[in-house]
Amino acid sequence: MISAHQPVDYSRKWLVLAAVAMGIFLATIDGSIVNVALPTLVQALNADLATVEWVVLGYLLTLTTLMLSVGRLADMFGKKPLYLTGIIVFTIGSMLCGLSSSIYMLIGFRVLQAIGAAMTTALGTAIVTEAFPARERGRALGLSGGIVSVGIVLGPTVGGILLDHLSWHWIFFVNLPVGIVGVLMVSRFVPNFKPAGGQRFDFAGAGMLFVSILCLLLALTVGQYIGFATLPVAGLLAVFVVGVVGFVAIERRVDHPMIDLGMFRNTLFTVNLVTGFVTFVAIAGTTILMPFYLANILGFQPQEMGLLMAVVPLSMGSIAPLSGALSDRVGVRPIAVAGLLTLLVGYAAITTLGAETTALGYALRFLPIGIGMGIFQSPNNSAIMGAAPRARLGIASGLLALTRTLGQTVGVSVFGALWAGRVMAQAGGILDGGATAAAPLIQVAALHDTALVIAVWVGLGLLLSIYAVFHERRQAAAGLEAETRFL
């Protein structure tokens, strides 16, 4: 083990990034492959769709609720052991998923997979941050973001090929060689920094946080089916609020808190987390609606839909390394603002989608969204990790991962419900067959309303980021003034 107080050897930084990339790629491609396979699983396992959806939901709930605990444990015991364990658990879980003979076995082993994914997802950014000098952090995190985009794009394609030529079991077996190589690379190349000893895990805070996040996720998930203005959803949201208040109270009292709340006194750290959450909510809102628009309104086939929906991750993955490298040279804030502004242009353009939009017209409207996310995300992630002390990199990385998964869940549920509600309002009442049974022009009008709300949401994130620009300049000026007083 290497003491965390010793200088970092940056000579193996690219090997570390390559090793971490294996875990990032595994978790990313697995999610998109499984989503494609859901209709197949309904038939192959003789199960109803509501049960099969728990193959995804069980994974998501486990992943999201465990990430912050993983981050804290990494700050206590080291990142490498947990990351390595995560890849091993994920790989074993993948094998067991592929061997499952019933839907309930598959759901159980997906939970096991998610435990491993929580370890890799929560800690990948922290390991990369520690492996690179600050002047190259944006570039490195941009490359990590590019790997995520590759996984998102390849998932549906690889999944479709496997389902056409083999069986659903192979969407999990395909993870095994990647996982084995990842275990070998992490074992060989990732340094094992030893944190300061004498720390204790905050079980009360971790338990309270687990219950709070779980109740929020369940409320968002259940609300999509039974409505958000129902007693069960209201009860879950109430438990979430009470749990958050209780968690903060616990963290203020304990000597070794789960999350050091003092980190949020750094205004820029907090702003970066919030604006990151804003973008993930927005991107999820459009991702959930576009398949319905492309299939039901424009009449595209699945292969054509896959190509069109790849516009965002492809453009994002292409731009992210460049924007990260640029932010290393000119600073984070101007690049982040430019990214949010580009995002806003893209979401404003979506409000002009129509029932006769061409494939080219669709791609041109979504291109600014992918470019904007690519410009924004790498510098923003770099700023978040750069603001965290080395002893708190694990929890900072966990918080960053949480904003992504929680933002996606909120975006899917809230904007999906908003679109369905606007369809019903435009149609003048509840429709047999649901919102997708409405006339095309009604669905398009509801899409315009939803896209407008998303654009306003992103606009608020842009204003917050612009505020951060002036706050940063005031801080710099105040620091310069303080220095000159002592000259």
Biggest sheet strand order reads 1-2
> Please, what is the average pLDDT?
80
Quickly give the CATH architecture of the largest domain: Up-down Bundle
What portion of residues belong to β-strands?
under 5%
* CATH topology call of the largest domain: Growth Hormone, Chain: A
Instruction: Indicate the structural class.
Output: mainly alpha
How is the main sheet built?
2 strands, parallel
Integer-rounded radius of gyration: 22 Å
* Number of E-type strands: 2
Overall, the morphology is globular
CATH homologous superfamily designation of the largest domain: MFS general substrate transporter like domains
End-to-end Cα distance, whole Å, is 43 Å
Please specify the SSE layout and strand pairing.
Elements: E1 2-3, H1 13-44, H2 49-52, H3 54-77, H4 79-99, H5 103-131, H6 137-165, H7 170-173, H8 175-189, E2 193-194, H9 203-226, H10 231-253, H11 267-297, H12 302-309, H13 311-330, H14 332-350, H15 359-387, H16 393-427, H17 440-485
Parallel strand pairs: 1-2
Verbal overview:
The chain has 487 residues and is mainly α. It folds into three domains: 8-201, Up-down Bundle (Growth Hormone, Chain: A), CATH 1.20.1250.20; 205-257, no CATH class; 262-487, Up-down Bundle (Growth Hormone, Chain: A). The protein contains 17 helices and two strands.
Keywords:
single chain; Growth Hormone, Chain: A; 487 residues; 3 domains; disordered C terminus; mainly alpha; 17 helices; globular; two-stranded parallel sheet
